[in-house]
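User: Structure please.
Assistant: Input sequence and predicted structure:
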Amino acid sequence: MNMIDKLIEKIKQTNNPTVIGLDPRYEMLPKCVTDKYPKTLEGVGQAIVEYNKALIDATCDIIPAIKPQIAFYEMFGIPGMEAFEETCKYAKEKEMIVIADIKSILLFKDVELFKLFFAFNILSKKPSDINTNIPPSTKPSAGSNQAM
């Protein structure tokens, strides 16, 4: 059975065509999760995995698939990519379909994503040290999160 057939079958089983996007933004994770881990790239990866697993556990019997966007994991370096892999494996263990959205962060025009990527990976900043507020004149326009 090919992937499309598996997805169609899972949609029929759950009677739900919904896909849950797992595009983690560290600053939006619940404090009760982030406070458990150090404010390092490794800690961010661990917090993302914990949160994603909780979402998967809460939805695996009613939603057929997840769609993690790799750019949101790439910005956290190797620990982020490990979180992406662990998230995908866990969803598969829960019999969810995984639709990996693998457009790289380097293809995005989103100023905020670039700012986070460089802060974490080039400047070695901690998540708590990053100000993601973008002045109105530099905010990306609607649809700018799309690949070029």
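Residues 130-148 have pLDDT under 50 and may be disordered.
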